[in-house]
Amino acid sequence: MSSARRRHIEGVMRDVLDEGRGQGIFPAASLWVADGLEPLLDVHVGGAGPESVWDVASLTKPMAVASLAMDMLSRGELELSDSVGPSGATVKELLGHRSGLPAWWDLAKRLDEDLPGWTVGAPATRAAAKAAIERALDPAQSGALYSDLGYILLGWHLEALAGQSLDELVPGYLAKGIPKERVMSGGFCPHRGRDLRGEVNDLNAYILGGVAGHAGIFSRADEVGDWALELLRCHEGHPGRYEQAVVRSFWGRSHFDDSGTWVLGFDTPTPGKSSAGTLIGRDAVGHLGFTGTSVWLDPLPGRVVVLLTNRVAASAGAEQAIKRFRPLLHDRLFEALNG
After folding, report:
1. Which residues are paired to 267 by β-bridges?
2. 179 vs 51, 64, 150, 182, 215, CA distance in Å?
3. Rounded-to-integer distance, Cα 57 and Cα 74, Å
4. Interatomic CA distance for residues 275 and 303, integer angstroms
5. Residues 6+ apart with CB under 8 A from 154
6. Residues 6 or more apart from 251 whose CB is under 8 A from it?
7. Phi, psi angles (nearest 5°) of residue 206
8. Using CA atoms, how far apart are residues 44 and 122, in angstroms rounded to an integer?
9. Do domains 3-50+218-338 and 57-207 have the same CATH topology?
10. Fewer CB atoms < 10 Å away: N or C end of the chain?
């Protein structure tokens, strides 16, 4: 791609991000794009820059748990059919959001009932939460139900197998040591009574000590992009961290016979309703994060699109507004790339 065309696309996307910021959807944003399996551009607005660090929220699920599971499968340390918990739920069911677990709990309320006097991050707190989640497993329930709880449990299972905690196994957990001016605001937390900067937004992840399978990673846009691009290259047979067969298995649709869009560790586009817009390929995979983050990987053109925002630091209406903004951004980007 010529430098002039690249500058044009960068200008188009800067305008889109400025529009979103002007509408109050987010105070700041970073966009990182690869095309043809090569990095193409990164754009930052609202005081963000290449070194800005973001709470990526549920991007933690694929970046930490799913990626670690791929590694362990490749080394023969894990099988998709392995049981997790007393119910017989499998690694595959947890990865694909088919364990029967609910989407979310108010973990503080649950702990108040099960462990009065619990403290944030304590081993007893984590043990009580684990026991409660295991009791709720119900793999007999049919169909996909997106669940934070499933990834919390799976994260603990992988920790036990590896003999190390997730923050030792996966870079990015906890923002300790990063200058606070580089960490983008995570908004005001009424439960903690303070503005969050370098502290995980997700309250359940905070209760578990900031390190959990569903949330807790802080990352720059290029770090998310590099991780996604390596996955995409491995999917296409290039040498790298992940075995091609494992990546293709995770992104394949053959594991479940229901109509759910979730594959292992990732979502796939819902026709006409995808956050990645109307031009994304059918074989693409991606994930969203509550804080206003997303990543989409499209194998055929070799594209990665990383959008990191702190919409949680914007107005109350930003949660709905970003649902309209994401597909618009992706359509504008793909139109520019395809033009």
Report:
1. 262, 286
2. 10, 23, 33, 6, 21
3. 26
4. 15
5. 65, 69, 84, 91, 94, 95, 213
6. 235, 263, 264, 266, 283, 285
7. -60, -45
8. 38
9. yes
10. C
Integer Cα distance of 79 and 82 in angstroms: 5
- Cβ partners under 8 Å of residue 56, min gap 6: 63, 172, 217, 218, 219, 224, 289, 291, 293, 308
Q: Return the residue matching tokens 């609202």.
A: 46
Please give the Cα distance from 187 to 195 (Å, whole number): 5
Is residue 79 left, alpha or beta, with left meaning phi > 0 and alpha meaning psi from -120 to 50?
beta
Q: The domain 3-50+218-338 belongs to what CATH superfamily?
A: DD-peptidase/beta-lactamase superfamily (3.40.710.10)
Token pair in block for residue 277? 């817009």
Q: How does DSSP assign 197-218, residue by residue?
A: SSS-S-HHHHHTTS--SSS-BE
Helices (H), ranges, the chain: 3-22, 60, 67-74, 91-95, 107-114, 123-136, 148-162, 166-169, 203-207, 221-235, 244-251, 318-338
* Lookup: tokens for 285: 């995979």
Please give the Cα distance from 286 to 247 (Å, whole number): 13
User: What is the fold of 57-207?
Assistant: Beta-lactamase (3.40.710)
Domain boundaries of the chain, sorted by first residue: 3-50+218-338, 57-207
Phi-psi region of 85 (alpha: psi -120 to 50; beta: other; left: phi over 0): left
**SS3 assignment, position 295:** strand
Containing 33, the helix (H) or strand (E) segment is strand 29-35
